[in-house]
Design brief:
The chain has 296 residues and is of the alpha+beta class. It folds into two domains: 44 residues; 233 residues, Neuraminidase. Helix content is 19%, strand content 42%. The protein contains four helices and 23 strands. A hairpin with a 6-residue loop joins strand 19 and strand 20. The longest helix has 29 residues. The radius of gyration is 25 Å and the shape is globular. The N and C termini lie far apart (63 Å). The N terminus is likely disordered.
């Protein structure tokens, strides 16, 4: 023991009893805080042995038909309303929302965003279309028929994907968190964390509400996560690697995809046939695929 350490111990020992008790209580409080932070980290980021031992269920996408898609569209959002397919497109100076007839694909009209906005996901509720922006923290509310701007709302954080369960809107922000928003003022009203066997799933992107489940693209991944909106647990993965267009296959194709940002992104539920429409950023094709059974 050094002389300096011995001197400190003697000083503490000679303190009045109340002072010594205060220091001991303070040390105890610090220890409790440190332990609580450690426990929070373990619960959030470290899967249990039981969870780690489980295997995720993965099914391959089965295409029913292939349709043409605008190869210049940097797809951010996709949804179907009757015979109209709505698609929001991103990139600064090129962002817009487009309406096309489905399945004919005939262009109807489009609304462009100002060049300072990077368009993101879109969803419709109550006759209004909500269109997110990436970093600008603005949500544009548009008329579903004319695409004219009705109002602008704000939110905190980034906007990536958007969908609705018919009551609230669900937003992704590139993390593992999905936030629920009020459909009148876009105020946050709740959130969940998406987890696969206990492990958070980051980079959640385009979203679609399908018969009580949240379907989510994962940025730069060929898989779609099917998420329980109550627990946040991933119930199923849909492997769409077989749908990647030939232009983005092979080493040259993968390099081209990395350089341009082309990747799987875009999910729309076709209710009358209970099938899914799938596409990607800068993809020349739009697929209709079977919706897989989800284990309960």
């Amino acid at each position: 023991m050094s002389g300096q350490t011995e001197h400190v111990i003697m000083c503490v020992w000679r303190m009045p009893e109340q002072a010594r008790l205060f220091l001991l209580k303070k040390e105890r409080r610090v220890s409790v805080v440190i332990y609580a932070l450690f426990l929070f980290y373990v619960l959030l980021f470290v899967p249990s042995e039981t969870a780690a031992a489980q295997k995720s269920i993965v099914v391959r996408a089965h295409p029913i038909r292939v349709m043409p898609h605008d190869a210049k569209a940097f797809t951010q959002g996709l949804f179907l309303d009757g015979g109209i397919l709505y698609e929001s497109e991103g990139l600064y100076g090129r962002s817009r929302i487009v309406r096309r007839e489905f399945p004919q694909g005939r262009f109807l009209d489009a609304e462009h965003l100002a060049p300072e906005y990077f368009g993101e996901g879109c969803a419709m509720i109550g006759g209004n279309i909500f269109l997110l922006t990436w970093k600008e923290e603005r949500a544009f509310v548009l008329d579903k028929t004319t695409l004219s701007l009705k109002k602008t709302l704000s939110y905190n954080g980034e906007g990536w994907g958007l969908t609705t369960d018919g009551t609230v809107l669900w937003r992704s922000d590139g993390s593992a968190v999905l936030t629920r928003h009020d459909a009148t003022n876009f105020f946050p009203v709740g959130r969940i964390v998406a987890r696969d066997n206990g492990v958070p799933v980051p980079l959640l992107n385009e979203l679609e509400w399908v018969d009580g489940w949240l379907y989510a693209n994962i940025w730069k991944s060929d898989k779609i996560a099917v998420i329980d909106p109550q627990s946040g647990d991933v119930a199923l993965w849909i492997d769409c690697s077989g749908l990647v267009p030939s232009i983005y296959a092979g080493e040259d194709g993968k390099r081209r995809a990395r350089e341009t940002g082309a990747c799987l992104n875009g999910i729309a539920w076709r209710r009358e046939t209970d099938t899914l429409l799938i596409t990607g950023k800068l993809w020349p094709v739009l697929y209709e695929i079977e919706r897989p059974d989800i284990p309960r």
